[in-house]
Amino acid sequence: MVSTSSTTGKVGGRRRSTASVPDLVSRAREGDPRAVARLISLVEDASPLLREVMAALAPYTGHAQIVGITGSPGVGKSTSTSALVSELRKHGKRVGVLAVDPSSPFSGGALLGDRVRMQDHALDRDVYIRSMASRGHLGGLAWTTPQALRVLDAAGCDVILIETVGVGQSEVEIAGLADTTMVLLAPGMGDGIQAAKAGILEIGDLYVVNKADRDGADQVRRDLRSMLALADRSEGAWKPPIVKTVAQRSEGLDEVVEQIDQHYAWLRSSGELEKRRTRRARDEIEAIAVTALRERWGDVHGRSELDDLAASVAAGKSDPYAAADELLDAFTD
Amino acid sequence: MVSTSSTTGKVGGRRRSTASVPDLVSRAREGDPRAVARLISLVEDASPLLREVMAALAPYTGHAQIVGITGSPGVGKSTSTSALVSELRKHGKRVGVLAVDPSSPFSGGALLGDRVRMQDHALDRDVYIRSMASRGHLGGLAWTTPQALRVLDAAGCDVILIETVGVGQSEVEIAGLADTTMVLLAPGMGDGIQAAKAGILEIGDLYVVNKADRDGADQVRRDLRSMLALADRSEGAWKPPIVKTVAQRSEGLDEVVEQIDQHYAWLRSSGELEKRRTRRARDEIEAIAVTALRERWGDVHGRSELDDLAASVAAGKSDPYAAADELLDAFTD
């Protein structure tokens, strides 16, 4: 059990002011960006206070529409995200942005040079932007992102954009986290093959062909349309629209916002929103429970039972199934 | 509990002959490739017999050196793997090859066209080659690969090569599974940036500059050497060598085998082998225990307790930590 609710920062860094969790939460709810930042830092640091923070936030969650933005490097994700933020602001929405860097656990990830574009919105108090680079710590995206989303949601964001870098596994994870997944493509990038390979044709709720002023944009749209036509969709299912944009000149973003709104309306009326959110909560609960168990397994009876079992399996004296049984038995006793 | 140990294949497919697990294991130990294939299929299908299979194999494991082979697409991984198999055969080694396709859970993964090169070894009974494409099923690589390795190890392979396709996360996973990780590079592929990005400079025990007859091979070696020189290695630590090869003409493979041998000798003498294997067993036990728990959580008291908890969190009535506590309490009662 956690006995203190002080949120004092770490020794060594700049010492942060002490504030109670209820105080931080109420300041975040009033839109204080420093309180939001502090709460997300508690998430990234896997603070023991998280438990208290999440309990305090729970009643205020469920309001924000979560939009995942994904696509191959070079399609213009950052520019599109920035332009989309501007468009959403025109509609009076409060916007949160989580830029997620799925870097390897080793490289640490600092290749987000064009994150600076986001500085356009730096002075807007109704836009909250956060770059999350802490992959690997306790499960990466799977662990920290849902909790950071809860913070932004409770802080009153109407729309939260999650932007991911790169291709592959991270896109699939994003699709699991978002209410609406927006897949970006651009002409001249061999996206046809890339798209099929990464499976992004199965996760998009909305496709955006960016750089639509370039040669080949119509071809990308045609290819996309014929590939999407092959999908086996049931009656009443959402048909992902394809929108053309030139994000650099903010062209087509009104249409993107319109389609995001329509998708949200469909999610609500079809019952899909509740289904997606329940599934997401399920994954989150499981991840927390599994992490709690791993911590206990690592330190049973003062020493690590799991280490002993692992040594025995490594030596061929036991097999992993028998060892897993022993581990579970030791825990449920 | 499993009450039968028949290994009859699925209805619908070609009906396989029924064989008991002990029978299959003893045939695999004698080098019968069909028995090995059948055991790996049991792994891929997550057969309920796995528990019995792994118990029967355990006493025969720990003999094989596991070599991970990784690198960006186009560096010549398949050709190098094939040439390395030939070289290892010259040294009288029994060789296993697991070709792992880290495809997305959606696309299913069938881009392994050049796997046919492996056909060179198809008639050699001391070479066992298997392509594993079943990502996502129950945790992908993390779940099936260690068990397939156990099968090949118990079947008497001296060296098992794991070849992975693509870059990124899968390389890190491979490094966790292998005793020796071999990173392939080639000139003219922008590997400098790629390498740093994917973090492969931190996982290699051995670096191979393939296509060394091409322009720029020496430059790749020089870049690599200066980057490796920056690494902070403790006294007695392994210094990853850099070997040049032309795999297509089988040049330099003798040196690769020599370095793989030296690394294995160092692993043994330094105690690092035991450490790596214990860590691997630990991960494997955890994965099995967690999967067992997830199955139980999904179906407590005849209906899914976890689903109810998830619905309550999604509705903002509870938070994920409180729900995880409830889940663990329900389980330990």
From TrEMBL, chains A, B:
Pfam families per UniProt: MeaB (PF03308)
Presence of keyword Electron transport: no
The UniProt record lists the keyword Nucleotide-binding: yes
Keyword annotations of the record: Chaperone, GTP-binding, Hydrolase, Nucleotide-binding
InterPro entries for this protein: GTPase/Isobutyryl-CoA_mutase, GTPase_ArgK, P-loop_NTPase
Region feature (Disordered): 1-27
PANTHER family: LAO_AO TRANSPORT SYSTEM ATPASE (PTHR43087:SF1), LYSINE/ARGININE/ORNITHINE TRANSPORT SYSTEM KINASE (PTHR43087)
Family according to the record: Belongs to the SIMIBI class G3E GTPase family. ArgK/MeaB subfamily.
Protein name (record): Methylmalonyl Co-A mutase-associated GTPase MeaB
Protein source organism: Nocardioides koreensis
GN (gene name): meaB_2
